[in-house]
Fold this protein.
Amino acid sequence: MVCAFLVNSQQLFLCLTGYERKWNLQTEQTSLRFYSTGMTLDNINKPDIDRIIRVDHAGEYGANRIYAGQMAVLGRTTVGPVIQQMWNQEKDHLKKFNELMVTFRVRPTILLPFWNVAGFALGAGTALLGKEGAMACTVAVEESISAHYNNQMRTLMEEDPEKYKELLQIIKKFRDDELEHHDIGLDHDAELAPAYSLLKTAIQIGCKAAIFLSERI
Amino acid sequence: MRRASDEQKQELPPSSSQQRYESHPPGDRPDQEPQRSHHSYTDQGGEESEDYESEEQLQQRILTAALKFVPAHGWTADAIAEGAKSLGLSVAAAGMFHTDGSELILHFVSQCNSELSNLLEQQQKLVQLGQAEKKKTDQFLRDAVEARLRMLIPYIEKWPQAVSILLLPHNIPASLNLLTSMVDDMWHYAGDQSTDINWYTRRAVLAGIYNTTELVMMQDSSSDFEETWHFLENRIADAMTMGHTAKQVQSTGEALVQGLMGAAVTVKNLAGLNQRR
């Protein structure tokens, strides 16, 4: 009797969650293969991939705006070309994520206009502290982003390294680029910025919050 | 064991539904149905998962069968009962569902959306094979909304009832979900590749167009709903104009900003402030 009741509650629970999931599933009839290793719209873990692509897209978009802000202030100084070069790489990253977003039908975060303004303000604001400030901002942000990419790579590898091979390669390459930016920042006297550790901590907390929000909203 | 658990399930329906304790003969034995490619919500095989999977499939079959009776009985438990009867099951099977007919309506909407997806997918294939012309965005959206709304025509008498049920608080998450995924599908096949805030504005606008056209359709008495399609055409044209205007405003704004920057640089030059640090 108890056994039957337990079986029922389990089935009822499954039934209820099943109902919700039933209405959520719009079965995709498409079977286009987007990558040679077989990462298709049907066989991926859609909620997880959604989050990954959404947050990465937001991140690259924000990074673009940060560099734009830095260039607006320091564009015509000696450090201008260095920032410009890093900015160009971020533009490539953003382009790649735009493509992935369309391919996997991922919704962009609704906070994009906010990241637009906040990124530019952060870049311009730190640049107004001088070139060291700008470099400190770069170091902080790139460190956050690299750690974040590492986490994502871990998640994907735990799930299915073969299926997500191409995505893993993309994220790995971008992480390496970001680490390079981090090192360039250090080379250009980031640590000499005013209140360096405070600035760095504050920016990294902001990055964590941005990542948390962009994954969900 | 299975029959006992089936009977136990009959006692689980919400308190609002009538308690029908007729023992239901398992007319169509569910586990003899061919296994369709359907998600199993329990991993381990065995009686439970088979039961669960076939119960869900059974519910789908009952709801699909019930649709035939909707024009006569409305979106009610009566229609579901008739549907169950037509499959050779007991009318007690209607006890599996809420009495307000929510599941029936949601099932219908979900089915229509899948049909629309298939239709748009087929059209896309034809275009890719070069057997059909690629439509312009406004024409595409018009045709997609029209095709989707035409699926309501057999049920149009009772559709206002359905809409009001879908607006009940406990149905809103599901119905909103269905609406957003339908609109997302339409834009996807229309070729939308936006990755910024436009993604949201486009879908919101199309959802608005769909809903208002649906309302117009429910009150339309012209032949073959001509007025509805005319209304739809105008709304889509409005949306396109809005899009163009927005673009124009943006480019005007950009031009203005450029002009101001130029003026500022000129003033700085004249005042001698523009020197390399």
Observations:
- DSSP finds ten helices and no strands in chain B.
- Chain B touches chain A at residues 4-5, 8-9, 12, 39, 41-42, 48, 51-52, 55-56, 103, 106, 110, 113-114, 117-118, 121, 173-174, 177-178, 181-182, 184-185, 188, 193, 195-197, 199-200, 276-277 (CB under 8 Å).
- The two ends of chain B are 87 Å apart (CA to CA).
